[in-house]
Amino acid sequence: MRPYTFASVRSVGEALGQARDGSAYLAGGTTLVDLMKLEVVTPAHVVDITAVPLRGIRADATGLFIGATERMADVAGHDLVAGPYPMLAEALRQSASPQIRNMATIGGNLLQRTRCGYFRDPATACNKRSPGSGCPAVGGHNRSHAILGTSDACVATHPSDMAVALIALDARLSLRGTDGERTLRLADFYRLPGSTPHLENELRPGELITGVTVPALSWARTSVYLKVRDRQSYEFALCSAAVAVNVTNGVIGEARVAAGGVGAKPWRLPGVERALKGRPMRLQTFEAAVAHAADGARPLSHNAFKPALLCRTIIRALVHLAG
């Protein structure tokens, strides 16, 4: 790990005052510290924001608000989350390990970096880490990599489970920078790699995520997060699905569907949602609806199974909701 300076702050204003070129914010640290040890990221200045009052979980008629430094485990078990938004609670519970969930924060989870092995190895090329150096995953080991939203410059998969559920729920981020506050849909926050995979999101220099708002959605109680992975715990998704349906008299009125483990960012599937709407809640409907779920996919040498796995994962989630 390279030398760095360190500051601990107690307010958003102090945090923003410490931000500078080459600095990083530290909350739970479960991603940042790992990457600093590997020298994948090398901030010259680290700002500890654990004492900044960015906590709180509350709900009203407009929706659910979660502070950015709330711990993942606390959010997953909260009554305002587990009952009204089971897909979000399940996505959190299926993330990482109990030890990490007790430390990691909501804001940090949304900003975690890809788990691509090439990105995490400074001895190899990686366009995310060193723009223009190449993407060895394209022709290398790529079983866990993305098939949707990729480019010739990067095929890394977005790692967050929670972000998939939040994308399905159309969540918004509250952001605070030196030029004031703003809100942004999470769906608009993440960037596709294109020719600039090192630019992963729309966060401005020094800006902080201060909270997440999930719009009120009464029928989100009928939702599920299904994660397919190589082992049951402490493993990233090969494919996942966050699905919610509003069913009346056996007919789907509305649906929300998003996928993880397959996209360069959490992947909303509006085509599947439209195909479900107005159709009976049964297997034939599900099979027809997922027919185009993997449209535009670019499978690689080791992950050609993912388009089929994506369709089967969504169907399985819908079957679960159908009972």
UniProtKB/TrEMBL annotation:
InterPro entries: CO_DH_flav_C, CO_DH_flav_C_dom_sf, Diverse_Substr_Oxidored, FAD-bd_PCMH, FAD-bd_PCMH-like_sf, FAD-bd_PCMH_sub1, FAD-bd_PCMH_sub2, Mopterin_DH_FAD-bd. The keyword Lipoprotein does not apply. Pfam families: CO_deh_flav_C, FAD_binding_5. Keywords: FAD, Flavoprotein, Oxidoreductase. The keyword Oxidoreductase applies. SMART domains: CO_deh_flav_C. Residues 1-219 form the FAD-binding PCMH-type domain. It comes from the Bacteria. PROSITE patterns: FAD_PCMH. This is Xanthine dehydrogenase family protein subunit M. It comes from Nonomuraea antimicrobica.
